[in-house]
Amino acid sequence: MTELSSKHLLGIKDITADDIQLIFETADNFKEVLNRPIKKVPSLRDITIANIFFENSTRTKLSFELAEKRLSADVINFSSGNSSVKKGETLIDTVNNILSMKVDMVVMRHSSVGAPYFLARNIKANIVNAGDGTHEHPTQALLDAFSIRRKLGDVAGKKVAIIGDILHSRVALSNIFCLQKLGAEVMVCGPITLLPKHIASLGVKVELDVRKALAWCDVANILRIQLERQQIKYFPSLREYTLYYGVNKKMLDALDKEIVIMHPGPINRGVELNSDVADSEHSIILDQVENGVAIRMAVLYLLAGVK
Questions:
Q1: Is 257 helix (H, G, I), strand (E, B) or coil?
Q2: What is the spatial distance between Cα 152 and Cα 220, in angstroms, rounded to a whole number?
Q3: Which residues are CB-contacts of 248 (< 8 A; sequence separation ≥ 6)?
Q4: Which residue from 61, 75, 70 is spatially nearest to 33, judged by alpha carbons?
Q5: What span, in angstroms and rounded, lies between the C-alpha atoms of 109 and 91?
Q6: Alpha-carbon gap, residue 71 to 132, rounded angstroms
Q7: Cα separation of the two ends of the chain
Q8: What is the spatial distance between Cα 212 and Cα 206, in angstroms, rounded to a whole number?
Q9: 69 Cβ partners below 8 Å, 6+ apart?
């Protein structure tokens, strides 16, 4: 297999296990490129990519922009805060105006679930979903699984616990789909108020005790509390959340095995994760950031070949 089965990356749900393996193999090659003195290749020299972000982002936006520049693409950055969206312009009009400047590919983050799917049905460019509401964040799931593969050799057969605010997390859903397609076992863990009602129907284990989740898993992917998406209180206080669900070095030392610690960022240090864990030898958090550039290079490169 040398090309993706889809011309867009809208969600992990929409791609195959073969697509994921192809992205990983392509990312392996780009990892080598990123470790060279000259970190640039001319692969997308004639391609123009628009980064359209309707929500704040630091890591994802920088990672995509760096990936695009490493591939020699022309890059347009659009932020809704300083745009005509504030004057009432529709999403389609905004994007069509950008596309009329001969843009080939759109990387979009939007607060509305399904916005990239809506766009893909209405415009001709390739669409990459950089996060839509609480739905999916496919490139984050790909880089997480890629990081597990590089650390442990394979994803199949591994036990991965996703711990924290599952209810409001697009990372959790994409990770569940991705890990299952690659043959991993998945457990979600958090306060019952932060677990979606029918989460078990996705074929994941559900655990309310963080210590039991850590004892079960090979990899713990720890999510932050998404206070910006919470309209009501889901637990009494951050202090109480930390007491029951915060992961610290003492908890890892009590295990009879070594586990891998991951976090999609940004970390709320001292809440879901203590610094003595985030900065420990267990952590591959900075590897995730580095791998994110290679994965996004791979996705953009492969989509550019699917017309």
A1: coil
A2: 13
A3: 274, 276, 277
A4: 70
A5: 12
A6: 25
A7: 16
A8: 11
A9: 40, 75
Nearest to 275 by CA among 283, 134, 243: 283
Strands (E), the chain: 48-53, 74-79, 105-110, 126-132, 159-163, 185-189, 205-207, 219-222, 260-262
* 28, 174, 204, 246 from 187: Cα distances, Å: 28, 14, 5, 17
Of the candidate ranges 146-155, 188-197, 229-238, 284-293, the one whose mean pLDDT is the lowest? 229-238
With 50 as the cut, is the pLDDT of residue 71 above it? yes
Q: Tens digits of per-residue pLDDT, 214-254?
A: 999 999 999 988 654 445 465 667 888 888 999 999 999 99
Under 8 Å between Cβ of 78 and 85: no
Lowest mean pLDDT among 39-48, 97-106, 181-190, 291-300: 97-106
Q: Give the pLDDT of residue 201.
A: 97
Helices 91-99 and 115-122 pack at an angle, to 10 degrees, of 50
Pair of tokens at residue 306? 């699917």
Give burial (CB, 10 Å; 0-12/13-18/19+) of 7: middle
Q: Which whole-number Å values give the CA distances from 58 to 18, 130, 142, 157, 192, in the listed order?
A: 30, 12, 18, 33, 30
Domains and CATH numbers, the chain: 12-136+289-304 (3.40.50.1370), 138-285 (3.40.50.1370)
The structure tokens listed for 84 are: 């005509």
What's the pTM value of the predicted model, to 2 decimals? 0.94
